[in-house]
Design a protein that fits this description.
With 498 residues, this protein is α/β, with parallel strands linked by helices. The protein has helices at residues 10-21, 33-40, 51-60, 70-76, 97-109, 126-140, 161-166, 179-192, 207-238, 242-250, 271-284, 290-313, 341-351, 364-374, 379-382, 391-395, 415-421, 436-441, 452-459, 467-470, and strands at residues 2-6, 25-29, 64-67, 79-82, 114-118, 147-151, 171-174, 202-205, 322-326, 355-359, 385-387, 400-403, 426-429, 445-447. The chain folds into two domains: 2-205, 3-Layer(aba) Sandwich (Rossmann fold), CATH 3.40.50.720; 233-487, Rossmann fold, CATH 3.40.50.720. The structure holds nicotinamide-adenine-dinucleotide and uridine-5'-diphosphate-glucose (UPG). The site of nicotinamide-adenine-dinucleotide has 26 residues, from helix 1 and helix 5. It comes from Ramlibacter rhizophilus.
Length: 498
């Protein structure tokens, strides 16, 4: 089949390359001339495991091409996927201007039946707006042509995008129940047949339900994460271990283990933006999604938790301290820095006076750009930020190391390495990647999310503190240099003064 993909970003490039790999002829359009030139020259604008090989193979075999020629792109594909960005506006609603530009261009240039597939994440009702725009352009150019706008939201995860495309959990298609809609659905069934395992993966529904399904999925996943993050913070106060709690609840099949990992908050280009957009949609429909509003504010608070733990340990003053930061991308196996929790953390460490030495296996360039943007007015802070090629180099002489992204490279950090390299062997583990008990037994304090106090309690074989102690008012935390201060001191709460 001949397919056009409008927008060659994470979603468009993966979709285009994978559809070419399945034997289709694919035209990838992008309005960013630099990106197109890079792809035409054999370069890759993003890091995504396995993608480069697929792109290269399909370009070489003549099934995949990149261009900025809008007219040619509309002439090419019987199916036109819209996979452009839908970033948040200042008020949290989705900015649909790129989607609408793409729709107008399709209407302006189309010369026969076209299926317009809405793959970008868009609010309910957008497909109808896209159809109106295409129709208006057809009328303005005196054309009487059939078309259908179909919703086919994308569920891929960055870092596993190729695998998600090739072996999807589900393929959601929302189509109208009219002649063009049925024709469109037949084409999509054909297009997805090779990955529609046992004919079971396709979920056909009306267009509005498909649009809402995408937001519902991300909102549910974000809710699980914020729920666990809040419980983790409570576990920190109570002397419980969120990792054990996670195993305890995950074994219930009604709950399951996925997306229950407490951490430094969710980031990326989707969860923060999509939860906000859904809340905005609800507001403009005259209702409220109170749970999701709370999910989002919990996540904003969570992005501060790691920084607060570091500041609490050092008494709020990081002048003269060197902090190693491991992992900058919003998650492993990507170089995407959009809404990455590392951004607020690094800025906070620098503002508190620290020198920061950062490492990320692939996101260094993107991180540099993002942090230069975030700290644009504070060049003196940027001067205190350095990047290194190896995690071990970041540790050298550091007063503490903060793990923000759970890259596999950091799983093997050993107590002996930490003790040998660092000024103080102290770990703030924002992804609960390391075993704090094992590290503590070897003289390295490791403060996790929702588990930091337990290692101290275990080490000292201390009983669970009485409830009275838990009710201690949280006051200004005293600076302590001993690693165990970071574990919360002898009680469960951090050592308090005054
Ligand atoms: N990134 C993900 O993991 C992911 C997963 C599922 C869904 N989504 C959704 O898919 C959409 C795309 O996300 P992304 O991360 O791929 O975005 P992106 O920013 O990486 O890529 C979008 C691309 O579209 C291009 N573009 C914009 N307007 C254009 C136009 N009129 N014509 C041609 N090209 C145009 C941009 O230059 C850019 O290259 C968003 O709605 C997003 O929410 C993203
Ligand atoms: O248990 C967990 C799982 C994830 N995260 C964080 O959540 C964010 C998002 O992670 P993930 O969902 O793996 O990455 P994305 O690539 O953003 O994918 C999400 O967003 C995409 C865009 O809409 C959807 O297509 C995917 O289905 C959806 O998982 C990251 O910051 C993770 O660190 C946690 O904190 N705890």
């Amino acid at each position: 089949m001949k397919v056009t993909i409008v927008g060659t970003g994470y979603v468009g490039l993966v979709t285009g390359a994978c559809l070419a790999e399945l034997g289709n002829d694919v035209f990838c359009l992008d309005s960013d001339a630099d990106k197109v030139a890079l792809l035409q020259a054999g370069g890759m604008p993003i890091y995504e495991p396995g993608l480069q090989e697929i792109v290269q193979r399909n370009v070489e075999e003549g099934r995949l091409l990149f261009s900025s020629d809008v007219k040619a792109s509309v002439a090419f594909g019987d199916v036109q996927f819209i996979a452009v960005g839908t970033p948040p506006r200042d008020d949290g609603s989705a900015d649909l201007s790129c989607v609408f530009d793409a729709a107008r261009a399709i209407g302006r240039h189309m010369d026969r039946f076209r299926v317009v597939v809405q793959k970008s994440t868009v609010p309910v009702g957008t497909a109808e707006q896209v159809a109106r725009l295409v129709r208006a352009e057809l009328q303005a150019h005196g054309k009487d042509l059939d078309f259908s706008v179909v919703s086919n939201p994308e569920f891929l995860k960055e870092g596993a995008a190729v695998q998600d495309f090739m072996a999807p959990d589900r393929i959601v298609v929302g189509a109208d129940d009219d002649l063009p809609g049925r024709r469109a659905l037949a084409l999509l069934r054909q297009l997805y047949a090779p990955v529609n395992r046992n004919q079971e993966r396709l979920r056909v529904m009306d267009v509005r339900s498909a649009e809402l399904t995408k937001y519902a999925a991300n909102a549910m996943l974000a809710t699980r994460i914020s729920f666990m993050n809040e419980l983790a913070n409570l576990a920190d106060c109570l002397g419980a271990d969120i990792e054990l709690v996670r195993q305890g609840i995950g074994s219930d099949p009604r709950i399951g283990y996925s997306f229950l990992q407490a951490g430094a908050g969710y980031g990326g280009s989707c969860f923060p933006k999509d939860v906000d957009a859904l809340c905005r949609t609800a507001q403009s429909s005259g209702t409220r999604l109170a749970v999701l509003e709370a999910v989002q504010s919990a996540n904003l608070r969570q992005k501060q938790v790691l920084l607060d733990k570091v500041l609490a340990h050092f008494g709020g003053d990081l002048r003269g301290r060197t902090i190693a930061v491991l992992g900058l991308a919003f998650k492993p196996d990507t170089d995407d820095m959009r809404e990455a929790p590392s951004r607020a953390l690094v800025a906070g460490l620098l503002r508190a006076g620290a020198r920061v030495v950062a490492h990320d296996p692939v996101a260094r360039e993107q991180a540099q750009r993002a942090l230069e943007h975030d700290l644009a007015g504070e060049p003196q802070l940027l001067a205190q930020l350095g990047y290194v090629e190896r995690p071990t180099s970041a540790l050298e002489g550091a007063d503490a190391v903060v793990i923000v992204t759970e890259w596999r490279h950091y799983r093997t950090l050993s107590a002996s390495l930490l003790k040998r390299s660092m000024r103080t062997p102290l770990v703030f583990d924002g992804r609960n990647l390391l075993d704090p008990h094992q590290l503590a037994s070897q003289g390295v304090a490791c403060v996790g999310i929702g588990r930091s106090n337990l290692s101290l309690l275990r080490e000292a074989d201390a009983p669970t503190p009485p409830a009275r102690q838990l009710a201690l008012p949280k006051k200004k935390v005293r600076a302590e240099s001993a690693p165990q201060a970071a574990l919360g001191g002898p009680g469960v709460l951090p050592v308090a003064t005054g």
